[in-house]
C-alpha cells in the first residue's frame, strides 16, 4: 500500500494540473478504492477489502476511512453504490444493511473527509467507463445481486434497478444473483441468463449489452458483437463521468 502513496506524491509534483479523483466502489462483497488522474488514468494501486458483515453504515464508513489512509492525496470523491441514489442519499440497499435506506452518504463523506463528493449507482458508474454513447446501451452486473444501468445516446436513465423487477416466479436478481448461482449451478444459471437477456432485448430494444460484475467470468453463453463481457474493474474507472459537467 505504500506504493500507492509514492505514486500520488510523484503525480502531485508533476507537470500536469487538474483534480485527482478518489474513486470508490461499494459492493455487497467488496469495497474498492483507487485514485485517478485528471485524465482518468489510475495513479494508485487498486485497493480492496471485504465488505464488513454486517454491512452497516458505521462499519462501511470505518472501512473506507482505513482504505483512504493509503490514498491520502485527492481533491474530490466519486462513489458507486449498489442501490438507487437521489440527491446524494442511498434510497435502497438490498444487499447491505437496512440502515442505508435514506442515508445521506455524500454529505457524510464530505463532512468526514473535507472534499466534494458525487454519487451514482455502482452499475451506472461502471457503465460510464464502457459505453460508446450510441443508441440504447444496457449494462448489467452479476455479483452478490444484479446491477443494471440503461443509457440512451450516452445519457443515463437513472433508477432502473432491473434486478428487483418481477421475472418468472421471482425477480431477475433472485435467479441471477449470487444466491441463484449457488442454487441452480453454473450450467442452469447460464440458461437462465440467456432467457433473461432475451427478455431485456424485447423490453428495451438495446443495441449493445454489457455484462460485468464478479460473476461475469462464469458466463459461458455464446454471443455476438452486440453483447460484450467487461472487466470488474470498470466500476472504478467510470468515476470521472460524475464530474464531466464541472471540471
Strand and helix layout:
Blueprint: H1 2-12, E1 21-26, E2 30-36, E3 47-50, H2 57-68, E4 76-81, E5 85-86, E6 89-90, H3 105-113, E7 117-121, H4 122-128, E8 136-142, E9 146-152, E10 155-157, E11 166-167, E12 170-171, H5 172-176, H6 178-204, E13 208-212, E14 227-229, H7 234-237
Parallel strand pairs: 1-4, 4-7, 8-13, 13-14
Antiparallel strand pairs: 1-2, 2-3, 5-6, 8-9, 9-10, 11-12
Give your account of this protein's structure.
This protein is of the alpha/beta class and 247 residues long. It has two domains: 2-124, Nucleotidyltransferase, domain 5 (2-Layer Sandwich), CATH 3.30.420; 131-229, 2-Layer Sandwich (Nucleotidyltransferase, domain 5). It is built from seven helices and 14 strands. It has helices at 2-12, 57-68, 105-113, 122-128, 172-176, 178-204, 234-237, and strands at residues 21-26, 30-36, 47-50, 76-81, 85-86, 89-90, 117-121, 136-142, 146-152, 155-157, 166-167, 170-171, 208-212, 227-229. The protein has a five-stranded mixed sheet with strand order 3-2-1-4-7. A five-stranded mixed sheet has the order 10-9-8-13-14. The chain has a two-stranded antiparallel sheet with strand order 5-6. The protein starts with a helix and ends in a 10-residue tail after the last helix. The model is unreliable at 1-6 (pLDDT under 50).
